Write a sequence for this structure.
């Protein structure tokens, strides 16, 4: 039995003043075809989805597919949710917004969708972990993932004989070795606050429990306890970047790294297209951030970049499943991988981008842990908090504010979790 809707969560979905005309999706068209509308949040993949829409409609006589890839999809979706004007399927990331949508009970249970059988269990587990409290059912079909770690210049490493570090000591030794040769170890683009999250997440998955946020919500620990080592090691990385890492944004960092101005760049795989657009000949590879003192403690920071959720109000669930079948066809997933440098959530014999060579063993083994920031509320602006911390370098002040702000911005979620614990016991 699902829980009652939470008004505060529905309000979180609807906090926007944008406007959009009602659609009328999910109905039969004038020619008798069932209309299925998808709104997906990745505008950079618009060309891919235009191709999917065209090919689907050319090969199906009974269903008319429409896919939108707007620049501000989440704002548009929230506006439509206010109006109860739901598309049939939404394409979103695996983050706190998905958590809210599950709790608000606007997503359909897709447990009966046979395509789930082919999804890597690690990504199904990630979605389950994102639920604010345990919920019966499955509410998303993971499609593709990305990963954060360290991108590196393969040719530069080969030229100098540098080895991929396996633990934190080797990471720092490598940085010292690179620096001693007059080369900048890392480039940072911390002028754009969101880039501060990439190294943070990549280290936190090694050094803090995967369910840190949930433990805090249950009153079992604090961020001051779990994030101290992450914070201290992050500061050490600053010694190996540009003199003023806050003077450069994401595009600046991508460009500088592409031109060989640093040996490494701590960012996600999603940066590869931007980097290669500057230097298509760059021999690019990646490795998992070795934040642990022992190699065995390292894990790949990978999260769901795009997943599809059927809306609870979708009038033709079988038609929606037929669309999902088409999207999940191996050839279509491969096209997406090639275009967006992505990791498939579906199991199968896919050709991964060469820039993921150093992460492939982790992917194949399912040794992956979700981004910590996927549990952070956007109102808390953790990226900006990390940026301020990196400027001020005060670990205690940063962690104290993190704990205080978490209680402020998550008051209702904490109450929800603790009420659930009182009723059901610790089931997480």
């Amino acid at each position: 039995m699902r829980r009652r809707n939470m008004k505060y969560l529905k309000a979180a979905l609807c906090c926007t003043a944008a406007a959009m005309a009602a659609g009328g999706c999910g109905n039969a068209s004038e020619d008798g075809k069932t209309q299925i509308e998808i709104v997906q949040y990745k505008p950079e993949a618009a060309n891919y989805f235009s191709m999917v829409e065209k090919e689907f409609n050319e090969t199906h006589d009974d269903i008319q597919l429409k896919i939108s890839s707007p620049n501000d999809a989440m704002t548009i979706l929230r506006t439509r949710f206010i109006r109860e004007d739901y598309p049939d399927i939404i394409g979103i990331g695996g983050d706190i917004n998905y958590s809210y949508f599950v709790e608000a009970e606007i997503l359909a249970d897709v447990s009966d969708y046979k395509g789930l059988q082919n999804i890597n269990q690690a990504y199904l587990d990630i979605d389950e972990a994102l639920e604010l409290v345990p919920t019966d059912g499955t509410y998303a079909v993971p499609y593709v993932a990305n990963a954060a770690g360290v991108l590196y210049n393969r040719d530069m490493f080969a030229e100098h004989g540098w080895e991929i570090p396996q633990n934190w000591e080797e990471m720092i030794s490598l940085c010292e070795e690179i620096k001693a040769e007059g080369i900048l170890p890392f480039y940072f683009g911390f002028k754009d606050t969101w880039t501060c999250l990439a190294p943070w997440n990549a280290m936190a998955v090694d050094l803090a429990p995967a369910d840190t946020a949930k433990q805090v919500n249950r009153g079992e620990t604090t961020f001051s306890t779990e994030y101290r080592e992450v914070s201290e090691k992050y500061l050490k990385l600053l010694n190996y970047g540009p003199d003023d890492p806050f003077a450069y944004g994401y595009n600046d960092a991508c460009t500088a790294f592409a031109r060989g101005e640093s040996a490494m760049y701590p960012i996600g795989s999603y940066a590869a297209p931007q980097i290669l657009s500057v230097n298509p000949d760059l021999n690019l590879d990646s490795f998992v951030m070795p934040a642990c003192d022992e190699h065995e403690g390292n894990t790949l920071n990978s999260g769901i970049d795009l997943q599809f959720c059927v809306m609870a109000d979708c009038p033709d669930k079988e038609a929606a499943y037929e669309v999902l079948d088409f999207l999940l066809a191996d050839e279509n997933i491969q096209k997406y991988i090639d275009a967006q440098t992505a990791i498939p959530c579906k199991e199968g014999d896919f050709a991964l981008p060469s820039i993921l060579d150093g992460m492939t063993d982790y992917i194949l083994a399912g040794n992956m842990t979700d981004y910590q920031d996927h549990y952070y509320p956007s109102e808390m602006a953790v990226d900006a908090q990390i940026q301020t911390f990196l400027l001020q370098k005060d670990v205690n002040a940063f962690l104290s504010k993190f704990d205080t702000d978490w209680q402020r911005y998550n008051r209702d979620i904490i109450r929800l979790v603790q009420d659930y614990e009182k009723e059901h016991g610790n089931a997480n």
Q: What stands out?
A: Strands lie at 34-40, 63-68, 89-92, 141-148, 150-153, 264-265, 284-287, 300-310, 343-344, 368-369. Residues 14-25 have pLDDT under 50 and may be disordered.
